[in-house]
Amino acid sequence: MKEIVGIVLAGGQSRRFGEPKAFAKRDGKEFILYSVEALQHVVEEIVVVTRPEFMEHLPVMEHVSFIEDLKKYKGKGPLAGLFSAMSQCEAKWYIVLPCDTPFMNARMIKALQSHQNERWEAIVPRVNGQIQPLIAMYHDRVKGKIQSMLEKNELSMHRFLSVCHVNYVDLMDERAFVNINTKEEYERFIG
Question: Is 11 part of any known ligand binding site?
């Protein structure tokens, strides 16, 4: 069993953005690469959870595995992606990032990781009072809780956190946590 595995969630519908956000670019580089690079020197392995139709279009990345949601939970959002990665790659801790945070960096990941402690099941950043459950660390102990929620079709990340022992960590670098959901946000932050 590995100590820490990184998970990048890149299988969303991107309805508000109008095209897959993983392939959007900042400074000529796909968004997904920023997430992978932020994790690269912190984790032992990186797993990208994506849709099969995206796989052939993703940039080639060394030491990165590509998987899709387990068939049983396909289309059930971030919890399905998290559970699918946890099921296919055993580790004590998982650091999850979405593919649409092109300002995320290793410094933020290490700041989060500095709060790693066995008494917690989740370490979740709070930025300006907003919790960030998709940019967080999860202990392997939450796997059963996620599966139970998926079985009941309870797909809310906030509901999931309500059943976990969570350490909410206040982090100040707002820019690192900017996620791009719409073309308007893309224009405002990246132009």
Answer: yes
Q: What are phi and psi of 98, to 5 degrees?
A: -80, 170
Q: Mind listing the pLDDT tens digit for each residue in 104-161? A: 999 999 999 999 999 999 999 999 999 999 999 999 999 999 999 999 999 999 999 9
The number of folded domains in the chain is 1
Q: Do the annotations mark residue 70 as ligand-binding?
A: no
* Predicted local confidence at residue 68, as pLDDT: 93
Question: Is position 9 annotated in a ligand binding site?
Answer: yes
Query: How far does CA 130 lie from the centroid of its chain?
Result: 16
Was 173 annotated as part of a binding site?
no
Tell whether 21 is in a known binding site. yes
Q: What's the pLDDT at 191?
A: 78
Spatial separation of the C-alpha atoms in residues 119 and 108, rounded to whole Å: 21
Averaged pLDDT of the chain: 91
CATH of the domain at 166: 3.90.550.10
Question: Could you tell me the CA-to-CA distances from 59 to 30, 48, 124, 178 in Å, in that order?
Answer: 8, 12, 29, 22
